[in-house]
């Protein structure tokens, strides 16, 4: 078991540094710190409330599903963060490029990535055509979390998995 944990830790750090340091360029410096906010609470909740208020058709119901999914994802993230107590990469690794005003809570799992996937997967399940745009955006949110120095790759992978599971549960729960 120690060998697996050691291998995961080494490769987690290796991939983190590739994204956080080797991918640095002006285009990503301008783009990814903005994309990261697509998984934030303000954007996520505002988007869903906007869709629920403006639309009266299927999109309203999809937004309700996404809100349920987002809630399930949020609760699971908070429980796991309290249990894991994993420090953020910028607090444990040297020479990490970080964003302004970095978060100080625990790193594992990524709440922004969970939120992005919990919304994106709901819309993808309802409209496979939408999957072509919303899933890549959710992936970019996960990558952006490493780029801005706030999460390890495993934080984002587990966040994506939690968001996907909560989306499937929300869609299944609503339409049983």
TrEMBL record:
Phosphatidic acid phosphatase type 2/haloperoxidase domain mapped to chain residues: 63-171
Keywords from the named record: Cell membrane, Hydrolase, Membrane, Transmembrane, Transmembrane helix
The keyword Lyase appears for this protein: no
Membrane topology: Multi-pass membrane protein
Membrane-spanning parts: 35-55, 62-80, 115-144, 156-175
Source organism superkingdom: Bacteria
SUPFAM superfamilies xref list: Acid phosphatase/Vanadium-dependent haloperoxidase
UniProt-listed InterPro entries: PAP2/HPO (IPR000326), PAP2/HPO_sf (IPR036938)
Annotated compartments: Cell membrane
Protein name, UniProt field: Phosphatase PAP2 family protein
Organism of provenance: Halalkalibacter kiskunsagensis
């Amino acid at each position: 078991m120690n060998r697996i944990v050691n291998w995961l830790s080494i490769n987690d750090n290796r991939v983190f540094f590739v994204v956080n340091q080797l991918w640095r360029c002006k285009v990503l410096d301008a783009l990814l710190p903005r994309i990261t906010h697509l998984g934030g609470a303000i954007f996520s909740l505002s988007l869903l409330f906007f869709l629920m208020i403006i639309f009266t058709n299927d999109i309203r119901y999809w937004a309700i599903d996404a809100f349920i999914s987002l809630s399930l994802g949020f609760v699971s993230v908070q429980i796991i963060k309290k249990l894991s107590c994993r420090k953020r990469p910028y607090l444990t690794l040297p020479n990490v490029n970080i964003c302004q005003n970095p978060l100080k809570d625990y790193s594992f799992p990524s709440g922004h990535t969970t939120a992005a996937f919990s919304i994106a997967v709901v819309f993808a399940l309802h409209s496979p055509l939408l999957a072509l745009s919303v899933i890549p955006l959710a992936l970019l949110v996960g990558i952006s979390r490493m780029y801005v120095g706030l999460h390890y790759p495993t934080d984002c992978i587990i966040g994506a998995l939690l968001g996907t599971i909560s989306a499937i549960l929300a869609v299944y729960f609503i339409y049983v």
